[in-house]
Every structure is written in C-alpha cells, then in structure tokens.
Amino acid sequence: MQESARTALSWLRANAARFGLDPDFHRYADVHLHIQAGDVPKEGASAGVTMAAALVSAFTNRPLRGGLAMSGELTLTGHLLPVGGIAAKLLAAHRAGIDRVVLPRPNRKQVDEELATSCGAPSRSTT
C-alpha cells in the first residue's frame, strides 16, 4: 500500500500541470494518506488508481463522482495494471449500490465473463 501511495503521488507530481496545479505543489504541501489496517489480507496492490484519484480531487478541490468504485494499480507512466478478484469486487460494488466501476482494460475479459455468468446476459461494458 505504501508503494501504491508513493506511485500515486509521483504520478500526480509528474502530471500536475495537466490538472492546473503548481508543478512544485509538493514542496509546500504535506501529504499523508492514511490506510486503515483492515482484517482482510491483501494478495497484491490494487489501490493505486483510487489513491491517485483521491489526490487529484483533494488538490484540485473537485469532488469525485458519487456511486463510483475503482481498482487498479497505477504505474508511474499512468497505465493501470490488471488486478485480481474481479468477481468479488463487482459483487461488493453491486451490494453497496455502486453503479460505475473503473477497472484496468486488461481486466475486461473477466468483467465480461462475470457479467455473463451472474446475469445470464451479454456484457454492458464499453471500451
């Protein structure tokens, strides 16, 4: 999780101008991301995109859309790496009333399979 937070902050520093931020914002802003230690062990990182979105939201003072969940590990170049546990993540989002889920493109096949299996219908995912 610490690596995800560091990567998200480094990515934001590299892309600060894209969001209208002073490129040196990190010199005068103290950033602390508190990740509560849960009782569910993690298999691997999958929160980088969420941390990056939270940082962009905080520094630009623009709230994220409600009803949105996301998962994916962010690289320093801004790509999202595929994550595991797609079925569990989709089920959790559904149970929480979430109507949009952001996942890495490489996970699209698993999303399509999960939707087809659980709904018995074709996927509604888009490119």
Question: What is this structure, in a nutshell?
Answer:
With 127 residues, this protein is mostly helical. It has helices at residues 2-14, 25-28, 48-60, 86-95, 108-119, and strands at 68-70, 73-74, 80-81, 100-102.
Structure overview:
With 127 residues, this protein is mostly helical. It has one domain (2-119): Ribosomal Protein S5, domain 2 (2-Layer Sandwich). Helices cover 41% and strands 8% of the residues. The protein is built from five helices and four strands, in the order αααβββαβα. It has a two-stranded parallel sheet with strand order 1-4. It has a two-stranded antiparallel sheet with strand order 2-3. Helix 1 (2-14) packs across helix 3. The chain is elongated, with a radius of gyration of 16 Å. The model has no long low-confidence stretch (mean pLDDT 85).
List the helices and strands and how they pair.
Layout (H helix, E strand, L loop, with lengths): L1 H13 L10 H4 L19 H13 L7 E3 L2 E2 L5 E2 L4 H10 L4 E3 L5 H12 L8
Parallel strand pairs: 1-4
Antiparallel strand pairs: 2-3
Helix pairs in contact: 1-3
Helix amount, in percent? 40-55%
Largest sheet: 2 strands, parallel
Q: How many helix segments?
A: 5
CA-atom Rg in angstroms: 16 Å
